[in-house]
Structures are given as structure tokens and as C-alpha cells.
């Protein structure tokens, strides 16, 4: 199954469970406080996911390493390689 | 270094001097070490380069890298031996991997795009658009058959398909020192085409 397929399947499953519990048929058997929470649950989850995303990307952005030494080392290597190749006869 | 290696240079016929330098390298190191290939075709692409390069590769492992970055190939082999991985991928996002010379905007786009990719594709690797990978030869051949995308989306597809086929992927932190010899663009166009590619992979793999 494709990722899209998995998502659609999962959403359908959760969606129908939510609809059954929050909107209707099993109404009388679900205590009122539960229903109050269930109804806006999808929106809550969406907002929660949004916050999680922002926090995660923000954290990862802040901890994105800057490789100063790697850059310096690269320049050194390039210099050394050029010198070596020049010695062996390469003309740039 | 103690390893047997050969370098396959694939030239797309563009007048950037690659061919002259490569020919000189052949004279210096010998044609068993440097293999020159020329592909002149209108539809030259990353995938084409891989296909042609692979037909002539004689080793057991194939390392694919952007020519204007710096990496320590040795580390990849060490990692590969550690777990007999089918693929070893360089990652900028883990360990002491990172970038050099990127401003905040570019880092944000990169992290954001990667986050989206992780959520949608759950690929099992932290960096999908990496430009430095080691493959076992048979693995690369199998993946080449299965992958259909173009450009760097193709790189992403390789990892996703590899995961589906049950191949093991090891990761090595890399320092992405950006385009020492040129400017790398990350404009609106690139972002749009990335999103299109991502959604295509999402819907088809």
C-alpha cells in the first residue's frame, strides 16, 4: 500500500470511530462529559500536531550544526590536492 | 589508503573543462583507476549518469558523490562493515553532521522540508536529499530498476524503495560545505518542484 493509502485508511478508521462515538448512533451510551471532549477532538489533535511541528522544526533549526572546521579542512585538502597534482603534471 | 578503487568520471559534454582535467588525470593515475565516460544526450540526467556509470563499474561497492563536496570515503566503509549495511547514507542532520555557510532562511527551509518528508514518507533515514551515498553494487542495480523519478527526487525515491525492499541503511554524519566552486540555488522554483516530487512519492510508494 502506498503511504497515501495508509493515511487514507488510518483516517477512515479513526474518522468512523470518532463519528460513531461523537455524532450519533451510540449516543445514549456515551456519558455527556466524554461527548463534550470527543466532538472537538479532531481539531484539538490538528492544533496539537501543528504545535508539535513548529516546536520540532524550531528545535532542529536551532541545533543545526555549522561546520567551520570542515570548511577549513576542505580548503586545506583542496590546496594540498592541487599542489600534489601540479607536481604530477596536471595543468589547470 | 589500502583500498582498491576506481573513479568513474561521467561527462555530459558541457564545456566546463571537466573533460580536459579528467584526461590529464587518466595520464597521471592510469586508466584502470580513472575511467572516462562520455554521454552526450539531450536528456542527460542524474539517473542516466548512474545507469551508464554502473554498467562499467567493476567493484563490489559503488560510492556516489557530488564532485564539489568533501567527504571522507573511509568513514563510509567503516560504517558499512559495522553492520554490513546495504546502503550507507550521509546525513547533515544527525551526530556532528552539519552545513557551512548557510543562512537562517536556508536552514529553516531545509529542516522544514525534511520534517515534512519524515512525516509523509517515514523513510527510515534522516537525510533523503543527501549527495553522498555508498551502495552495494547489486543493491544499486536493483534500485535503479525500480526507481522512476528524475533529478534529486530520484535520490529520495531510492531510499524509500530501499526501505520497502528491506535493505538496511546506515548513516554517517557529513559536513555539507556548500558548492566551493559555485553558487547553489534554493529559490521558489526549487521548493515547488520539491513539494511536487514529495507528493508524487507520497502517492506512489
UniProtKB/TrEMBL annotation, chain A:
Pfam families: DPM3 (PF08285). It is a multi-pass membrane protein. Keywords: Endoplasmic reticulum, Glycosyltransferase, Membrane, Signal, Transferase, Transmembrane, Transmembrane helix. The chain crosses the membrane at residues 43-62. Its main location: endoplasmic reticulum. InterPro entries: DPM3. It is found in: Endoplasmic reticulum membrane. One of its GO terms (molecular function) is glycosyltransferase activity. Residues 1-19 form the signal peptide. It comes from the Eukaryota. Pathway: Protein modification; protein glycosylation. One of its GO terms (biological process) is GPI anchor biosynthetic process. GO terms for cellular component: dolichol-phosphate-mannose synthase complex; endoplasmic reticulum membrane. Component of the dolichol-phosphate mannose (DPM) synthase complex. Belongs to the DPM3 family. Stabilizer subunit of the dolichol-phosphate mannose (DPM) synthase complex; tethers catalytic subunit to the ER. This is Dolichol-phosphate mannosyltransferase subunit 3. It comes from Casuarius casuarius. The gene is Dpm3.
TrEMBL record, chain B:
SUPFAM superfamilies: Nucleotide-diphospho-sugar transferases. Pathway: Protein modification; protein glycosylation. This is Dolichol-phosphate mannosyltransferase subunit 1. The keyword Magnesium applies. Pfam families: Glycos_transf_2. Transfers mannose from GDP-mannose to dolichol monophosphate to form dolichol phosphate mannose (Dol-P-Man) which is the mannosyl donor in pathways leading to N-glycosylation, glycosyl phosphatidylinositol membrane anchoring, and O-mannosylation of proteins; catalytic subunit of the dolichol-phosphate mannose (DPM) synthase complex. The keyword DNA-binding does not apply. One of its GO terms (molecular function) is dolichyl-phosphate beta-D-mannosyltransferase activity. It catalyses: a di-trans,poly-cis-dolichyl phosphate + GDP-alpha-D-mannose = a di-trans,poly-cis-dolichyl beta-D-mannosyl phosphate + GDP. Keywords: Endoplasmic reticulum, Glycosyltransferase, Magnesium, Manganese, Metal-binding, Transferase. Residues 2-143 form the Glycosyltransferase 2-like domain. GO terms for biological process: dolichol-linked oligosaccharide biosynthetic process; GPI anchor biosynthetic process; protein O-linked glycosylation via mannose. It is found in: Endoplasmic reticulum. Its main location: endoplasmic reticulum. Its EC number is 2.4.1.83. GO terms for cellular component: endoplasmic reticulum membrane. PANTHER family: DOLICHOL-PHOSPHATE MANNOSYLTRANSFERASE SUBUNIT 1 (PTHR43398:SF1). Belongs to the glycosyltransferase 2 family. Its cofactor is Mg(2+); Ca(2+); Mn(2+). Component of the dolichol-phosphate mannose (DPM) synthase complex.
